Batch of 2 targets.
Target 1
Amino acid sequence: MSDTSTFMPVLLWTDALVFLLVGVLCLFAWSCWRSENLRRGWARVAASGIGMGSAVVLALFVAIGLLDSLHFRPALDKPGEGGKVAYSVDVLSVLDVLVAPLRERRERTYSAPLAAVAFQKETIERPDGTQAREFPRLRHGGAHLADPADAPADIAWRAAAGLLAGLVAAAAFCALWIGLLALSRRSSLRVTLADVLHGTSGGANWRAFLLTASVLLVLAAPIAVLSMQYHVLGTSKIGQSVLYLSLKSIRTSLVIGTLTTLVLMPFAVLLGIAAGYFKGWVDDLIQYVYTTIESIPSVLLIAAGVLLIQVYMETRPGLFETSAQRADFRLLMLCVILGLANWTGLCRLLRGEALKLRELEYVQAAHAFGVSHWRIIVRHLAPNMLHIVLISAVMGFSGLVLAEAVLSYVGVGVDPSMISFGTMINDARLEMAREPMVWWSLMAAFGFMLALVLAANLFADVVRDAFDPRSTVRRAGFRIGPARMPDRAGGSA
Amino acid sequence: MSERPDGGTGGAGVRQDGTAPLLEVEGLRTWIHGGNSVVRAVDSVTLELVRGETLALLGESGCGKSMTALSIMRLLPDAAEVVGGSVRLDGEDLLDLPEHAMRAVRGARIGMIFQEPMLSLNPVMRVGLQVEEALHRHRRMSGTAARARALELLQAVGIPDAVRRLDEYPFQLSGGMRQRVMIALALACDPELLVGDEPTTALDVTIQAQVLDLLRDLQRSRGMAMLLITHDLGVVARTAQRVAVMYAGEIVEVAGVDTFLRGPAHPYSRKLFDSLPERGSRDAPLAVIRGSVPALDGRFDGCRFAERCDHAFEPCRTSLPPLVDLADGQRVRCHLHAASGRPSAAGALDPPSQAVPAAAGAASSVAPAVGPFGPATTPATERTPAAPAAPLLVVRDLQVHFPLRGGLLRRPRGAVRAVDGVSLELAPGRTLALVGESGCGKTTVGKSLLRLVEPTGGCVEFEGRDLRGLGRSLLRPLRARMQIVFQDPYASLNPRIRVGDALDEGMRSLRPEWNAAERRRRIERLLEQVGLPAEAGNRFPHQFSGGQRQRVAIARALSVEPRLVVCDEPTSALDVSVQAQILNLLRSLQQQMGLAYLFITHNLGVVDVVADEIAVMYLGRIVERGPVRTVLDAPAHPYTRALLSAVPRLDRDDAPAEARIAGDPPSPIDPPAGCHFRQRCPLALSACAQQYPAPVALPDGRVVACHLHGPGAGTHLAAGPADRR
């Protein structure tokens, strides 16, 4: 091969935005570290057991999503014209490579979880030439077995081995972590261990962290071991592993949940603050706009938007090199449309807050100093609204993940070729009436979405509790020592 | 007050009359559990209260008075708990009662009045029903009987037109009316004990006078015991028979009110008196208590006040002071008195070995004859009269109307006439006090001068330049010449911006000629000027106490070197000892930098200390304006007189009843025709209803808007209030 490169990196639009978002989050984390208020808030999140546990689950999902966002096109074995390396039209991700066995070992059609034979009887030709109607063996699921009837014993044995491996891995992970913790604190291993076990370590709740991580490891190991020989969650209509589909859906959900927030944020923040701060006709105009948008059923609005995009893409077939790029563009547009339909709630909240803050005396003092409107908004208003933005972004995430599922189910969601929880559910819908029922696609989508959304919701709750000033700051008011509290803080500082 | 039940001594624990006390609090300790520490908010408090007696619990914010009351009522917040002691009501220990039995005690045997009437009444329930609910709960009354009783109660607390008020909602009532309803609620079941937690702090001074009179009359006629929590010495003098002073969670002094007012024994009590802004302190700096209340999360080895006490000597730091009995039932927790072997309350105030000159001064400044506005005052030294310089600020006929919009197209339907024709003049380096009750428009005047609120009419001239119609950019150079200090030190600093950056912001905007190094140098000097350490610039506002924050706010206003500072109630959110610090600071800054102050306040005591001239506002207009001494000594307008007489005084000399005004201020949306004050005015004439009186300049240099002083009212002048004093 003349050219050494065996793949061509592909940067899809959503990939770019996802990594931009990661960059923004890193910046945000850095600014959190510098700002005492925010650091205290996050410290409260870390100190909460639920917060730490849900953060671990979310981190796992995010890691999968990020791996799935590194796209490339592998080189084809035979060079194309002019000796140049030709690249496959399939766009793969790093995740695809990591779970290649899942992706590549396809069956012909449905098979139940952990099955060694197909789901339906077929007429097959025996070696002796007779025909029989029976459950055919799967191409990959349990293919190593001499007799499919041995499957349960084999599964049990492998699961036990996996479980053991998981336990060992979990123990090793915990030991490693506690060792690192002890090292960073310069305390003895025993003290650190006792601290973690009793949850008395101060700071972050490492007990919840290690517990969740261990549970995840112990669960994941048997699945990993079993999926070498079986389809743990069965296969879909076209024989794809449902586990693979579920893993791929995670990225779609995360992209929808986060990029939509990214899209709606500028609208909500700028318009909300402008409406509350300037009042008068600016306020009237913005209020009329969002009241109008809110009175249109959002599904209708989204359907109209998606159809518009569809027509646009169909009339320009040369726009995209690969089908993945095409599907990705539609995903991006879906995020934009969802964002445009969803900014009103946050905007309303921020308008109210801006109305309140603009009357505060420190804003008035800034006016008295002739500080410009823009500087007042950036320095005095926006930082004091950050907690609202943060809380509503985290809480909105789970709503958007669910919205994607509903929209794809209705048919105005992501591209049909794109794997998402919504398309999984949509595909499974018709098979619900079948006897015996094909339940695994639906259950897998349900289970993964439940885990993701529940973790996000729990995390959002903890974030809200940690940042909501009403739950943390006891502001001066009644005669019970308001002025003294800051004194004490000052004394210790 | 000759009606004192026990002849005015009111000694605790040494009662000769032998009556068993109604309420006995013994060794009460209440702790608040914080994040990592425990705050000992109430530490071994012992109190006694007999029937028919009013005990005032006096102290600054954070000293545990409210916690004591809430512990007695067992209404503590979740984080707090009573860890020791007993609370006995008629011999029965309330702390042992199960919650359901306690519910029967609350409301029926102990009534409670809170500070904020708006927060303690249910906003979606008619007031009559709220009273009836209490009657139903404790007296099993319902239907017409309950309604009749509710009506009777509302009448008893002096609510006019009570039949109609029964069916109104709290928002339809004014603040004073709401507090009366709250009192009616507390009295519904004839409680033996009434606990009032700062019941008049949120009210205006004229309304406060009404409510205090009401409480005192009710307490006398019903023979109730009353525990009155307050931070205001004037309220104590006006209502209480005995007083208990709290400091840092414990009681430092108990005495009969007369004894206490004559000679407070504890150094802390005496400091409280000294820091009151009064006439005597006009030219000397006010006494201040240095430092702040100690944190209550540790144990104390010595006296809690030792760090801030001028008389502290060796044992104060090493051993806990005992409660010493003095004469007249006065008890004090102080080593000075323990060591000197029971001296009499009036004389022994000094540590045995040291002579303390402050003691004599303290005693004389609270001598009964010298009230804040006593008539018999020498024409004390006015501040050096300024040369007749050109006025710095001239305001003519200033109007600020806020339109009320209604209907689909939001057309203006009327206007709130917050400021309706105000004229002022202020010379450089002088102080003009703008006085009035809440809602009279005084803050709006201050803000409209700085164009934080757009004036709708009139003319403002600053340094000879007309500010009318100047846009945001044209106004900017002038903003460096006039600045503002706000009321609430908690709201006036952005919690997310370091103090240094907050000071920097104004200079960067208005003094672009100063570079970064220059600004840094100035920030350091400003912090030093207002008495804060230089490293304060790196801290966030929440790391400061209220008084320190107000210092920061003052430094911020001064950062651009203004000539005029509008001080909008700069001390009303602060404790009295801190208020003295801030007033001293403002005065010394004025002398150093030649500042002119427009000092907006509702506190007439403060006016007397800081102001050269005074303007009294009522419902958007100035009713009287003139040199401060002239106006306060012999007020010409009936409203000024009423305002002065409503201030609770330390000399316990009841103001003539006719000077008290009844009722609430009318609404600025629809002011009464003619003189705005006529409906509340005891001296109203027929002319008052016809037209608003034109301002008249009197020969002594003041301007009054009153028909009593009008050109055509010469005959009334003889009976005018100025002469009736």
Note: The CA atoms of residues 57 and 443 of chain B lie 32 Å apart.
Target 2
Amino acid sequence: MSTVTTTPARGKGARRKTTKAKVPNAVWGLIGILVFLGIWELLPALGIVKAEYLPPASEVLVTLAKDFTLTAFWLAVGETMLAWFIGLLVAVLLALVLGLVIGMSSFLRRATNSTIEFLRPIPSVALIPLAVLLFGTKIESSLMLIIYACFWQVLIQVLYGVADVDNVAMQTARSYGFSPFQRIRDVIFPTMLPYLMTGIRLGAAVALILAITAELIIGSPGLGKEIQLAQSGGAIAGMYALIVATGLLGVLINLGMRLIEKRILSWHVSVRGENIA
Amino acid sequence: MKTLKSLLYILALPVLLILWWILATAGGASFFVPTPADLVKTFIDTWIGERMFTDVLPSIRRLLIGVVGAIILGVLLGLLVGLNRTARAITEPVFEFFRALPPPVLIPVLMLLVGINDGMKVAVIISGAIWPVLLNTIEGVRAIDPVQNETSRSYGISGFARIRYQILPSAMPTIMAGIRQCLSIGLILMVISEMFASSSGLGFAIVQFQRSFAVPEMWSGIVVLGLIGVIMSFIFQWIERRVLRWYNGLKEVENAV
Amino acid sequence: MLSNSNGITGGRTLPEGEALLSVRGLKKVYHTDGGDIEAVRDLTFDLGRGELVCLVGPSGSGKTTLLKCIAGLLSATSGEVLLDGEKVTGPPKKMAVVFQEYGRSLFPWLRVADNVELPLKNAGVPKAERKKLVEDALDAVGLSHVPRSYPWQLSGGMQQRVAIARAVAYQPEVLLMDEPFAAVDAQTRADLEDLIRNVWKKLGVTVLFVTHDIDESIYLGERVIILSSSPTVVQEDIVIDLPAERDQLETRSLPRFTELRHHVYAEIQKAKQGHRPEEAKTTFLTNPK
């Protein structure tokens, strides 16, 4: 969701952007946030929803601010992020290696296609009971779910990326006597990189979802477990504060991944010949 | 000959994997992994029968209601917001937050607000799975070609007809990508809302098996979930191919140049 | 009759009641972050019923802006456009536009016949009549054999034919064309030019055809309006006194064609160099007889 500018006329005489807006989008966005918080504040205040079930926004935000000063809170964030990071890393490495091997051989591509198409849609949460059986409430449970879910996201993108390699470029490389390693490094990898980044960005979001899910359902350590504890302990405002915190964490991860993607691909766009469609 | 070859490509690896599984468990099943024969027998015993009606079908019904609700609400709301520049700007940060919020955390919230019942599970699915549809609809509507808009205007195509014949089809490729995500999130939420707070349903049954160390039964439950995921994915791909036939054709022509 | 009434800078005007389309003192200024851009300064001219008029001007002369103002797609900063005496405030029912970007103007999710039919369906034309109109229009542009194809399965020239068929089927009184052939190859372009002349003659529709191609404007038009460079005014408004039957080879090799071409070319060169008409003139070039 990038910034939006209207171009009413695309005519020759009017190529330049015409911004009629007097109010910048950031201000509108801020208004949106305030309206949302306002409604949240009013719902329990007007008795539309019981305050025990939905504490007013002000109370939740105060609790969240208090959380920010607590070591226990940051420990939980750290545990969630640790599972997120390790899971994502392992999934990316596995998917990258397997994706390259499969993608570069048309025989392997065809032979694995049906298996991949069959395994991919299996919901990762189906593995929850197995994870509990194998690892209990340890971090490995989180990792198993995260790796399984992210692996497919990244693998598919890597396969797309390798398939996108220009035949002419590949033949050129071959005719100049590039070794297989050089071909991977200088032809395949650069073509695939944007796809890989897309896969990692999608995988990062999925990894957070599964980290929180595992903590919430299985009870492996992290923010999700804290949410579950707050809920069963009746600390409702605390529960909402933690939920807001996971949302903020998600926003940060999304922004961070987009930033990294931009950085890594900025020098790259010309190489790839970004299609502006 | 050609079909035989492609059939071979489709079946070879799965058959190899199953053979490997048979051989690996031949020396007597481990505690964690049942033999294939065991699993098939358990699968039939467990799911073909009463459980089909008490657990499987109710779960699927909730999933369908939730997913269809999320798609309809997401597209309607997306059209409403996407067509208005100010509305887009106002809602963007709030929607970004909800997109980034891991959907499972909605379960404890909705347990409080709705109570523990079927409605809660449907509400969880809708409120978690709506975001990709909503945000993709907004993006699809926003990115509509200005020439298409001018064409509609100059030929007097406006209001509902414009939405029906121009805006929706034009945004459809983006919307379908959102629906694909919506389906997998919906399935995840169906399972874990039943694991978290329920006394029936697939998720509940599987957790019960695990807690009572009924490992083959647990595996058979995982297989059921996998089958649901695979079937959903195939149905979606079938629909997508039909709905986006024009789009795929167009892309093919463009890429051929 | 071909006089400049009331001293406004501009092209030929007609006495009240005779013009189908009137542009009066049209001005369009875009407000941008970098300041205002005056795309069109002051344009005045009339189109009589059944005329085929070409607008030609150097690139960046605000041709498209002008056309969009006439089509009711853009609102003018000042001045007005009158269709049959009524002020144009939005896209009028009696007008149809053929866009330069045919690939983006045809809906890729609709088949050829459905693209042509959609505006009619939307206007509430009964089904039987719709079917007839679509068939006739596709027939008129020589595409009756591909109604079930998708636009993107056709060549560029054929796609633009579909767009023309859509405009024709809409039964407009005024047909506006915005550099419709700028993106097709030369051979196709010649065919499409003849197609336009035929459609114009057969249907008696009024056509305003915007182009940057001097030859095309002379070959097609009964009249050519030359625009100055931006900010745009009418540089000159000339009558094309070529025989009504035009032929790609014959007409283009007439000495008169060459003269007109020279004249328009010289005017456009002047316009590019920033020459602005003291007072727009309506000219009959002295016919060498």
Note: The interface with chain C takes residues 8-14, 16-20 of chain A (CB under 8 Å).
